[in-house]
Amino acid sequence: MTTQTQTMEHAHHRKVLRYSVGPRIVHWMMALSFLLLLFTGMVIFLPFLSHYASGGNSRLLHRIGAVIYMSIPVIYLFVDRKALKELLWDSFHYDRDDMKWLAHVYRYFMGHAAEMPPQGRLNAGQKLHHAGVVIFSAFIVISGLILWFGKGYMGPINLGIAAIFHDVSMLVLTVLLVGHLYFTFVYKALSGMTSGYIEEEDALLEHPKWVEELPAEEPWVVEEA
Amino acid sequence: MTDYAFLLDLGRCIGCEACVAACKTGNELPTDLQFIQISEKSTGTFPDVTSLVLNHRCFHCTNAACVEVCPTGALYKEDGLTRLNREACSGCSYCVDACPFGVPQIYDGFSSKCDGCAEVVKAGGTPWCVKTCPNHALMYDTRENILAAAQNRLEALKGRYPDARIYGETEAGGLGMIVVMPDKPEAFDLPENPEPAFVIKAWQDLVQPVSAALTGLSIVVTGALAIIARRNHMQELARFEEDLAQREVAEATAGDSSQETTAEKEEV
Ligand code: HEM
Ligand code: SF4
Ligand code: SF4
Ligand code: SF4
């Protein structure tokens, strides 16, 4: 109870740690390699960009991006094994509040977090987003590897199937990215991935169950000067 | 625009490979690259062996799978034929896999195939292979004339070969290579239906445009709502902070009074 009261008293001067440095580095590596893959994929996807594909440099860059993208889980494992495990566990486990949250997701979408069911470290939308990224990354990596090593020998049917899997995964991952940017903007959440800290009142509004469990000491909670 | 076409008379092709050599020399192809592959195929068991000459080359499909999948426009249709601009090619090999005849090859990183001797015919000449064929198995002319010629040759063949037919009049939207054949297409290892495969069409005509449209739509919708939703959130955040502050004050006073009560009790 003391912790709770203290938290309240200092609500306006405190920040809480959302992502430590390891996960932050992994996040930005993933973001940059995804954008590289997206742009070098787009040049052979959108006809008006196709002159950038001529000569084949975009194909080399796509493969460099692919190698970085595929190594992300391994890097994450080395950098912060615990955070990776937590992320995967959380993304595939939904409690009652999460289901209720999802049923009212349109309210959250419109910027109303206040009356949503209380959420933990990740809200149900973030969980779904991360689960989608994991699943469709697997699809895009498998179909990408099949294209990489099979093209030129695979015939029309296999080419068509692999390309359809690749493109549909691209669609899903890109729409997830668009949503990700949208919520980051609407809920001014960028600092969680830059400095790693967010304002305590933001955390209390959107992730009360998480704040409750958080140790009330540095580095998890810091006083603002 | 007049469509041009080739005639390939498999009843006349003797497999001499003069066209192969003429194409290589005329187009200055490297030694290990050729646009025509001639091979022999024997069917039946000894002593009833018949042998056929297979003539593998670009058939210049109207609904060309290679053109359909080419992301750079390096492959394109012109005058009824399928041209290739290697400068624009990205080397992705989509055309290699998509072609129902297995025609394009990646050479030196980029696609290569017969372009119908674009330079020669635009200068008013005859394609190298056609000019060289000693047995008149090849012709080049307007598609109309070629179809008429094919009909004549078919008549001549019919007597000896009951299965003789013309291949390419309507296949894959009509081929730019009209083939007169004394037997069924299978006998010459040619597909009965060289239309682009269904999944190739689904990928190009459905999955690609729908993916592009849905991605665009998601950007438009979120872009339009972002400002409104952010304002909503800022307002609720301000209210939430006020509530927090009030609760703080309330709790502080509550804390004070309870302390007082304890003190009073102690005094008593
Ligand atoms: C993760 C994000 C990725 C995105 C957004 C992406 C996007 C794309 C797109 C849009 C295309 C063009 C498909 C078309 O023309 O319809 C493409 C092609 C291709 N992708 Fe990816 N891709 C990603 C990951 C990968 C991975 C991980 C691999 C390999 C392991 C890969 C390998 C390929 C290959 C080989 C092609 C064929 C074209 C070429 O040779 O350049 N991609 N990608
Ligand atoms: S038309 Fe020209 S490029 Fe094509 S096979 Fe004949 S000679 Fe070669
Ligand atoms: S035969 Fe193959 S390479 Fe030639 S036009 Fe048809 S699809 Fe293209
Ligand atoms: S290899 Fe070249 S010609 Fe063939 S589909 Fe790719 S870009 Fe087009």
Keywords:
heterodimer, A: mainly alpha, three-stranded antiparallel sheet, B: 268 residues, alpha+beta, Alpha-Beta Plaits, 2 domains, four-stranded mixed sheet, two-stranded antiparallel ribbon, 7 helices, 43% helix, disordered C terminus, binds protoporphyrin IX containing FE, binds iron/sulfur cluster
What's the gist of this structure?
Chain A is mainly α and 225 residues long. Chain A is built from eleven helices and three strands, in the order αβααααααααβααβ.
Describe this protein's structure:
- The complex is a heterodimer of chains A (225) and B (268).
- With 225 residues, chain A is mainly alpha-helical.
- Chain A has a domain at 19-79.
- Chain A contains eleven helices and three strands.
- Chain A has helices at 2-9, 21-42, 57-79, 81-91, 96-103, 105-109, 124-150, 155-186, 191-194, 200-206, 208-213, and strands at 14-17, 197-199, 221-223.
- Chain A has a three-stranded antiparallel beta sheet with strand order 2-1-3.
- In chain A, helix 2 packs antiparallel against helix 3 (57-79), helix 4 packs across helix 7 (124-150) and helix 7 runs antiparallel to helix 8 (155-186).
- The longest helix of chain A is centred in the C-terminal third of the chain and has 32 residues, at 155-186.
- By secondary structure, chain B is of the alpha+beta class.
- In chain B, 43% of the residues lie in helices and 18% in strands.
- Chain B is built from seven helices and ten strands.
- Chain B has a four-stranded mixed beta sheet with strand order 8-1-10-9. In chain B, strands 2-3 form a two-stranded antiparallel sheet. A two-stranded antiparallel sheet of chain B has the order 4-5.
- Chain B is elongated and about 115 Å long.
- Chain B starts with a strand and ends with a helix.
- Residues 260-268 of chain B have low confidence and may be disordered.
- At the A-B interface, helix 1, helix 8 and helix 10 of A face helix 3 and helix 7 of B.
- Bound molecules: protoporphyrin IX containing FE (HEM) and iron/sulfur cluster (SF4) (3 copies).
- One iron/sulfur cluster (SF4) is lined by residues 69-72, 74-75, 89-95, 104, 111 of chain B.
- Residues 58-61, 64-66, 82, 99, 101, 103-104, 113 of chain B line the site of one iron/sulfur cluster (SF4).
